[in-house]
C-alpha cells in the first residue's frame, strides 16, 4: 500500500482532522439512549477526490527510466495532509444529503430533527457514533453510510476511544477500567495497598524540591497517562493539574506523590461517570478558586464543573 511520508503541507488550510470533543460526546450520551458504533474502514482516506495538483516522488523500490518524472495524485493518499479534510468533506456532503446538519460549535457533530425524533452522528477521524430515538432511522443511516463508505458496523456502543460504555435502563456508565488496570500493572502497583485520598494533604510540593530525578521522562510519561484518566475521573482533575506543574523541576518527592495517586486509583479502578437519561436539560455551572495558594508563583488554581441536568459534561482544574 502506498502512503505519504508525512511532509509538511504547502497549504495549512488543507490540514484538518475532525475530532469530537469530550463535552459533546458526554452531552449526547445524556440525551440519547441507543448508540451504534462504526468505522469508515477501507475508504477512510483512499477513495476521496483531491483538490488541486499534488505530486509525489516514485517509491524507492520502483524502477523508473526517467528520473525526472513524478506521480500525480487523482485521489487522497493515506498519510497525506489533505486526506482528513477530503474525507470530512465527503462525509459532510453525504450526511447533509440525508437531512443532517453540522453543529456550528463543533463540526464533528451532526444532528437531525424530525418532529419529536432527534438524531446525532458524532465523528472522530474515521470512527463514527450514531444515535437516534428512532431505531429504524439508525439502520437506514448505517445502510446509507455503508453504501457510500463501506463502513464496519461495530454494533451497540461498548468501547470508544479508550472509554468503556456500560448501558443501563436509566443511563450509561462511562469508565476507563481497562486503562486504569493496565496502568497499575505497567508500573507494578498491583501489590501496593490502596489509599482513600489522591494526594497526601500534609505534603506541600514545590518546584526544585529534594534530589532531582535521574530520569525525568519516567515521571512525564506517567503523568501524561494519568492525565488521560481525567476524561472520566473528576476526582483526580485537581491532582493532575497539581502534578503536571512539575514536569521540569522535579524530584523524588514529586514521584512519590504520583505513586500515592496510583495507590488511590487501585482502591477502585472501575470508578467512572454515570450519565443519566433524565429529561432535565438544565445547564448548571459551578466554579471556585483558591486565591493565590501556589507557594512558588502566588497564582490561583481555578476549577469548574458543568452539569447537564444531573450529568457532568465538562470540568477542569487549571492554575
From TrEMBL:
One Pfam family hit: RVT_2
Record InterPro entries: DNA/RNA_pol_sf (IPR043502), RVT_2 (IPR013103)
Domain annotation Reverse transcriptase Ty1/copia-type: ranges: 63-199
Alphabetical list of SUPFAM superfamilies matching this protein: DNA/RNA polymerases
Region Disordered, residue ranges: 1-20
Spans traversing the lipid bilayer: none
Listed name of the protein: Uncharacterized mitochondrial protein AtMg00810-like
Gene name of this polypeptide: LOC107787051
